């Protein structure tokens, strides 16, 4: 009787040992259709994608934001294709196709959205959402966690992949995390997550890779690696290819004359900020909205630095000293559907406020310049520097922020505002006030407040009196990197107004009011 007991115990022990053994290194199908999301917390991006992959045919396709942007990698033909929406001059939206041929610096390869796990090590097995807090509850399903670490100088990169297994032991992707730590900076320099939401491994219909044939494709503008990254943005995240980022960062530094003090630590830090802003810009442009973003001189600035640059002080009573504007005194019927004071000569050239929170001074001078032009037919360049230097008693704080209505109060008390020629050019820093030593070219008697949200009153004031200084919420990255098009961001607030700009006109496109 003892022998059967011994044999049963032996079988149970063997089963336990097998259960704790590392599972086979995961591999994925050579043909799949998959959908998911790329999340970049530092860049504020959550981008849905759908990918078609046929390794045997040497073809792949990745769609972003539904059908807003389609990218096709035809390695069999040595061609990239990109299909996107474009707004024509008549405001008609059409789909267009771009193509780019392979080159020595930008070879065309098919693009998987699943990493090669051959260097990953098995870590543990457990309930999926307990392996990482990033995952939602997936009932009681079990997952495997695989990890890969690599050290590149001061940078320690950690890659984590979470997967399930089907009944046959085949890997089903669930989650991919990249976390980069820079010991020189003492902080994380990069992080991105890929959530895989569906995975289908049957043969892909070859027609999905021929979608570009519906269009007349034209060459894609732009240099080498940068253009290739636009044609295949997924490459950066799956293959960790940052060549285009380094190329863009070097071009950015050269164009804007950046000269960082600490050549190692600050360069790494600024590159990290640039990387996140660059990703945000590229992801936004893939949405194909009615406006586009572009890298500008602020692309290496942190959110905190941008808050200081905007420079409009938040005040509870922004109507202090102003007279309510009464639109009923004007003939509204004579106002045209479009108006632009720039075309008439009432607006001076745009200036850069530099690293100085003096937007309020530009809004105030722009308003006075324009209304002086309406009254006299002469356009003067008035001095923002006088306002930065001298309006402290009215509670403005120079380069640390101010308000236009406090500026008007100063101008009335001081006897007027001087021209830029008489007072001195704009410096971008707080200077020493010398307003008593210069001629005041323009005086004002008071100012009006236009009721917030009253579009008709705004049009009346603009048309009959000239450009108007307005407060806006400029805290959104879309505002910081705006390039061209009709700007609209639903995240903008009508209460958190942190920037002063100059309204110079208005228009109407397809029944929608637009401001200039």
Automatic annotation (TrEMBL):
GO biological process: proteolysis
PROSITE patterns per UniProt: THIOL_PROTEASE_CYS
CDD domains from the UniProt entry: Peptidase_C1A (cd02248)
Limits of the Peptidase C1A papain C-terminal domain: 335-516
Keyword Glycoprotein set for record: no
Segment forming the signal sequence: 1-19
GO terms assigned for molecular function: cysteine-type peptidase activity
Segments forming domain Cathepsin propeptide inhibitor: 249-306
InterPro entries, alphabetized: Papain-like_cys_pep_sf (IPR038765), Pept_cys_AS (IPR000169), Peptidase_C1A (IPR013128), Peptidase_C1A_C (IPR000668), Peptidase_C1A_papain-like (IPR039417), Prot_inhib_I29 (IPR013201)
Family under the similarity heading: Belongs to the peptidase C1 family.
Name under which the protein is recorded: Group 1 mite allergen-like protein
Organism the protein comes from: Dermatophagoides farinae
């Amino acid at each position: 009787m003892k022998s059967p007991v011994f044999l049963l115990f032996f079988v149970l022990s063997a089963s336990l040992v097998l259960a704790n053994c590392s599972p086979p290194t995961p591999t994925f199908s050579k043909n799949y259709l998959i959908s998911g999301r790329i999340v970049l917390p530092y860049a504020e991006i959550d981008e849905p994608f759908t990918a078609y992959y046929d390794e045997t045919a040497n073809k792949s396709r990745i769609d972003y934001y539904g059908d807003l942007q389609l990218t096709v990698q035809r390695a069999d033909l040595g061609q990239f294709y990109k299909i996107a929406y474009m707004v024509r001059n008549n405001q008609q939206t059409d789909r267009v196709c771009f193509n780019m041929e392979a080159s020595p610096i930008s070879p065309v390869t098919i693009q998987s959205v699943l990493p090669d796990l051959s260097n990953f090590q098995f870590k543990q097995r457990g309930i999926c959402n307990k392996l990482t807090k990033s995952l939602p509850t997936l009932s009681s399903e079990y997952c495997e966690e695989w990890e890969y670490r690599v050290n590149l100088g001061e940078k320690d990169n950690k890659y984590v992949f979470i997967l399930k297994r089907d009944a046959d032991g085949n890997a089903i992707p669930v989650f991919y995390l990249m976390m980069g730590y820079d010991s020189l900076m003492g902080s994380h320099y990069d992080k991105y997550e890929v959530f895989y939401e569906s995975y289908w491994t049957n043969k892909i219909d070859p027609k999905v890779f021929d979608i570009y044939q519906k269009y007349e494709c034209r060459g894609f503008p732009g240099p080498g690696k940068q253009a290739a990254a636009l044609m295949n943005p997924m490459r950066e995240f799956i293959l960790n290819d940052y060549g285009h980022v380094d190329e863009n960062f070097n071009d950015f530094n050269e164009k804007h004359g950046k000269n960082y003090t600490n050549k190692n630590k600050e360069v790494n830090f600024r590159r990290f900020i640039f990387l996140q802003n660059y990703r945000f810009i590229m992801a936004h442009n893939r949405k194909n909205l009615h406006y586009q973003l572009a890298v500008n001189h602020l692309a290496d600035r942190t959110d905190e630095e941008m808050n200081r640059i905007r420079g409009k002080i938040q005040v509870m009573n922004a109507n202090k000293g102003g007279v309510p504007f009464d639109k009923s005194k004007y003939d509204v019927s004579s106002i045209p559907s479009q108006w632009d004071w720039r075309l008439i000569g009432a607006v001076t050239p745009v200036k850069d406020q530099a690293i100085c929170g003096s937007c309020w001074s530009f809004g105030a001078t722009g308003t006075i310049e324009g209304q002086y032009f309406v009254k006299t037919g002469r356009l003067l360049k008035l001095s923002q520097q006088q306002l930065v230097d001298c309006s402290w008693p009215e509670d403005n704080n120079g380069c640390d922020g101010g308000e236009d209505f406090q500026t008007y109060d100063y101008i009335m008390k001081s006897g007027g505002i001087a021209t830029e020629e008489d007072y001195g050019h704009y410096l971008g820093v707080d200077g020493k006030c010398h307003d008593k030593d210069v001629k005041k070219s323009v005086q004002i008697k008071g100012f009006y407040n236009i009721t917030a949200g009253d579009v008709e009153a705004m049009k009346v004031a603009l048309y009959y009196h000239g450009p108007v200084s307005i407060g806006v919420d400029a805290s959104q990255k879309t505002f910081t990197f705006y390039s061209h098009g009709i700007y609209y961001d639903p995240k903008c607030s009508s209460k958190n107004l942190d920037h002063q700009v100059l309204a110079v006109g208005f228009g109407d496109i397809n029944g929608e009011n637009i401001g200039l």
